[in-house]
Amino acid sequence: MKTNYKTALVLSIAISLLVNAIFLMAFFYREIPRGVMPRHVPQFDLLRTMVNIVSQFISSFALYVLIFNIFKIRTSERVRLLIIIVATSVVTYFLSGSISELQMDIFNLENRPRFKKNFVGAGELLRDYLVALVIVFSAQLIYISQKQQKTSLENEALRAEYMRSRYEALKNQVDPHFLFNSLNTLNSLIKIDADKAQEYVQQLSYVFRYTLQNAEVISLSEELKFTKAYCHLMQIRYGNNLDFEYNIDEKLYDSLIIPLSLQTLVENAIKHNVVSNKQPLKVKIEGIDDSVKVSNHIQLKKEVETGERIGLVNLAERYKLMWKKEIVAVKTDDTFEVTVPLMKS
Fold first, then answer.
1. Could you tell me whether strands 256-257 and 328-331 are parallel, antiparallel, or unpaired per DSSP bridges?
2. Which distant-in-sequence residues (6+ apart) come within 8 Å of 313 by Cβ?
3. What is the pLDDT, as a whole number, of residue 318?
């Protein structure tokens, strides 16, 4: 626990004013209210009241600083509490006695009858112990509050580190998967059409430069540019059997999106559905309010390619970790659509 001198200062002022509230009230009303103070208490004296306030402030501030420093001791809670009680009792006793002697010297109270002098001294000592009890209790509350806040911050830091590590793991999972599929496509094209294979390699170089970036978020315009390059690669492979439709308002281009979001959804659509002369596939990418939707007609393959769980599940978890938002997947009788949220830049 830090020694918070500002907190000790504020609380000490509040306690000193509260303890001497009756004297302050007497100052404003020019008399002590009847029935409140004993008869032996003299009429209000501004100088003595100010001395009481200052002395109470000094003793309270000293106790707060002492207790705050005791809280720094590395030991069990019970031992620390015992040290606080003993130290507070000793310091309060000596401070109360020293202040009482000082007041007696200042206000010449040596001539007061011994019984009254002892009675008032005992009353002041009891008052000081009660104040010390309040100080210990309030300092304990401050200590517990700061300890809980520190624990909360540590837990939040650990959680953020876990989320960052988990996000990187998910991202690293996507890259080899994308590379594996791309090389398979390139291998197929080399056997079919060498010219298309060469064009595919050129486009693929741009695509991989994009995937190698370390940005956690990116503008929709950059993600869309990358997705179009990827779609071009797929059109080289499938020809007229695969078509893409884009309908995104340019107002959304500056919005932020998690990299590879749209490409993952397009890849899933191609991977899970038949793409042929008899069943050409059309994929739509459109902007809706503060999100982007990718949709296609359902024409499922009989056998789905391996690694099917990497795409959509991975993407959903990345959005949960990064933005604490959900992607929305809707499947009807003939269409499948996935909507991913956008963030304002």
1. unpaired
2. none
3. 80
Second-level CATH architecture of 193-341: 2-Layer Sandwich (3.30)
Q: Where in the chain is the domain with CATH 3.30.565?
A: 193-341
Q: How far is CA 185 from CA 48, 78, 260, 321, 342, in A?
A: 94, 69, 18, 32, 31
Both tokens assigned to 293 = 């939707």
* Residues of the chain where predicted confidence (pLDDT) is lower than 50: 30-42, 109-120, 306-309
Specify the pTM.
Answer: 0.52
- What does the DSSP assignment read for 48-97? HHHHHHHHHHHHHHHHHHHHHHHTTS-S-HHHHHHHHHHHHHHHHHHHHH
Question: What sections of the chain are H helices per DSSP?
Answer: 5-19, 21-29, 46-70, 77-107, 114-192, 194-211, 220-238, 261-272, 311-323
pLDDT of residue 118: 44
* Pair 222, 262: CB distance under 8 Å: no
Instruction: Express each pLDDT in 180-189 by its tens digit.
Output: 767 777 887 7
- Say how far apart CA 145 and CA 138 lie, in whole Å: 11
